[in-house]
Amino acid sequence: MNIILMGPPGAGKGTQAELIKAIYPIPHISTGDMFRDAVSNGTELGKEAQKYMEAGKLVPDKVTIGIVEERLAQSDCAKGFLLDGFPRTTVQADALNQALLKLNKKVEVALNIAAPNEILIERLSGRVSCKECKKVYNLSYNPPAKTGVCDICAGEIIQRSDDRGETVAKRLEVYNEQTAPLLDYYSKKSVLHNLNGNRDSRVVFEDVVKILESL
Ligand code: AP5
Question: Which residue of 15, 28, 83, 158 is most buried, as measured by CB atoms within 10 A?
Fold first, then answer.
């Protein structure tokens, strides 16, 4: 199954990806996670990506497309993939089409999760995660049992630097300008499914499963 997860920052793409990969054994490819790993490992890619991420802007297409093409060509993607946060521009979408064509594949389903702006802002400002195992929490909806400590591995709980104030506003603006037009792009390819993300994540997931089972 070749799936892309779409939606604005905070819509619940990462949350649904965790639920999907627990049932469907396909690799979860999150460009945001790849960039954050590169930043924490201090690589050249990380140094390049960090300045854009901290400003709430997109990392340049050339850089982003290269890492995704490389990842999709790996053997664990043979039976499908779950792309989260890619593509985000029409240039990226065209490049994805070309890369998949070479691999005799195509995007089979684009799941678009939507929620009102005020909900997105509230979720992002409350999101924290474990520095070690990366489990995501929300201080309003599902906080860790002990403040600052991960329930799973006792790791330190941290906040993403781009989940603060003005950066969140910029990310939402960039989404509306550069990524939202892709909904039309995938609608024209008849693979787009819209989901109301302003519900309990388990309820959203029930709809996701219905869509995936209908393929
Ligand atoms: P990325 O990491 O992809 O961030 P994003 O798209 O902004 O998405 P988020 O991770 O913020 O939100 P999400 O939808 O996954 O929500 P989540 O499930 O965590 O990208 C970060 C940066 O990297 C970009 O700004 C850019 O600089 C760069 N980048 C990445 N990809 C790129 C690309 N292709 N091109 C160029 N640059 C790129 O949920 C959020 C919170 O809400 C959590 O606390 C969660 O617990 C809670 N929550 C989730 N669902 C629900 C629900 N149903 N009800 C209540 N709470 C919920």
Answer: 83
